[in-house]
Amino acid sequence: MRPLAEQTILVTGATDGLGRALAADLAASGADVLVHGRDERRGQDTLAEIRDRAPDARVRFLRADLASLAEVRDLAAQTERETGRLDALVNNAGIGYATGSGEQREESRDGHELRFVVNYLSGYLLTRLLLPLLERSAPARIVNVSSAGQTPIDFDDVMLTRGYTGGRAYCQSKLAQVMFTFDLADELRGRDVTATCLHPATYMPTKMVIDAGTTPISSLEQGLDATRRLVADPELDGVTGVYFNGLRQAEPDPQAHDADARRRLRRLSDELCGLA
Question: Which is catalytic among the residues 97, 170, 203, 243?
Answer without folding.
Answer: 170
